[in-house]
Amino acid sequence: MKLVNLGCSFSYGNCVSDYETLSEEHVGPGTLIAKHLDYEEVNLASPGLSLDGVLRRLYTFDFDRNSTFLVGLPPESRFQVVSTKLRDQRKIRGSFSTDASANAFSKGPTIPTDWFLTQSWLNSFGFKNYNVSEHVQYHTWFNILLIQKRLQELNCKYWLYNSVYGHMQNTTKIPELQKLKDSISLDNYYQPNLGIRDFSDTDMKYQITRDDSHPNRVCYKEWVKEFVDTFLSKRIWVNK
């Protein structure tokens, strides 16, 4: 059996074993959950990925029958555009002061060719009458609905969680957007109001380094234990 891991950097994992300690082994939540289930992890997450990026990969990547999907839903403000250069998700990051943070993602798995670049809805596009906050909610909830629909089409077992912050804690003043939010199934959705960063922010010991709040392996282990104990072990799979 295979566990297909999708999401952004919080789902992709890193090679920091504990606070400011670089390791040779790349570990993420999918690694630990696959080990618990005795499955093979297929890590198709990427640092910086967006919700529409996850949806695109569900349509354009090939999956084995009977795969189980673990989907970390990326932050709401991101979207993707077609780029002029290939994605490099194992690059050494030059803007961080510590060796652990600079090299945290340099030993992870590679993916098939990817020509997409992530942008943010929070940047000014010069759109007239552009309601940024409500548009972000529209983009978020509609894409989560489409992700769920695609997973149902694949007829595979799946679990969703929020990779960074909770998507379902947000509100809207627009009735149509509220209907989109209300249409999202919470049956297979772990802690819809919280994300992994809500956990990693509770103590610096859970973070990569002092200048990078990504979760380290200590954080992943504790988060996965809670996921398994309070959610996974008590779920009856409902694909709807």
Helix content: 25-40%
Strand order of the largest sheet: 4-1-5-8-9
Number of helical elements = 8
What structural class do the secondary elements suggest? alpha/beta
Percent of sequence in beta strands: 15-25%
Unreliable parts? none
Question: What is the string of SSEs from the N terminus onward?
Answer: EHEEHEHEEHEHEHEHEEH
The largest sheet, given as strand count, sense and whether it forms a barrel, is: 5 strands, parallel
Evaluate the radius of gyration.
17 Å
Write a structural description.
The protein has eight helices and eleven strands. Strands 4-1-5-8-9 form a five-stranded parallel sheet, sandwiched between helices. The protein has a two-stranded antiparallel sheet with strand order 2-3. Helix 3 runs parallel beside helix 5 (132-154) and helix 5 (132-154) runs parallel beside helix 6. The model has no long low-confidence stretch (mean pLDDT 94). The two termini are 22 Å apart. The chain is of the alpha/beta class. It has helices at residues 9-12, 29-37, 51-60, 99-102, 132-154, 175-183, 196-200, 217-230, and strands at residues 2-6, 14-18, 21-27, 40-43, 68-73, 78-82, 116-120, 157-162, 189-195, 207-209, 212-215.
Observed structural traits:
240 residues; alpha/beta; five-stranded parallel beta sheet; two-stranded antiparallel ribbon; 11 strands
Short description:
By secondary structure, the chain is of the alpha/beta class. The protein contains 8 helices and 11 strands.
